[in-house]
Structure formats: structure tokens, C-alpha cells
Amino acid sequence: ENGCTPDIVTYNILIKFLCRSERWGQVDRLIQKMLSRGCLPDNFTVSTVIDAACKAGKCSQAKCFFENILRRMRSYWNATTFNTLINGLCKESRVDEAYLLFLKLVEIGCQ
User: Distance between CA 2 and CA 12 in Å, rounded?
Assistant: First the structure.
């Protein structure tokens, strides 16, 4: 209303709260709004969503989110982001998927 535009820090605070509250629809809508306003997610954004989703038993959704983001902005993500999802998959006994993700990490030379 007063002309202030939210930045990545503002979005990350809201996303973290929504993730902790398991309000996944609102998380998705907020990320879409963020993107439409030209504010790109950072490693903190992606790791927050993936970590919260995995802890809530939603690793499949976390993996889908990760793959969509990775396709859009490959250069943004580092080993920490990959490790968050690999850890979640392993905790769900999805070791084969975790291993394939590890191979992808190595393939793209992520550090």
C-alpha cells in the first residue's frame, strides 16, 4: 500500500513460517507471487521448503519442487540444497532415489 516492495528476506520469513505451519498451498502461491514480481528464490528459500516438506513426510513433493526449481535456475543451487533432499529421501528409506540425486549433484559439478 505504501510503495514498499518485499525482498527475498521478507519472502523467506513468510515462507519459513508457512512451511512450519504446513500450509503448502500458501507456500506455493507465495513462491509464485515472488517469481511473478521478479524476486528469485535463493538457497535458503529452497532448502527451507525442502527441509520442511521432508520433515512433514512429503519428500515426493519436495523432490518435485526441487526439480522444477533446478530446471529454472540451475546455477543457484549448491550441495547444501541437494543434501537437504538427499537426507530427507534417506530418512524415508528411498536410498535409490537419494543415490540418483547424488549422481546428479556430481554430474553438474555442484559444490
Answer: 21
Mean local confidence (pLDDT), 39-68: 89
* pTM recorded for the entire structure: 0.83
- Check: CB of residue 87 under 8 Å from CB of residue 95: no
Q: Using pLDDT thresholds of 50, 70 and 90, give the confidence band for residue 74.
A: low
In terms of Cβ atoms closer than 10 Å to its own Cβ (0-12, 13-18, 19+), residue 30 is middle
- Name the DSSP class of 4: -
Residue 11 half-sphere exposure, CB side, CA atoms within 13 Å? 25
E strands, 1-81, in order:
none
DSSP state of 62: H
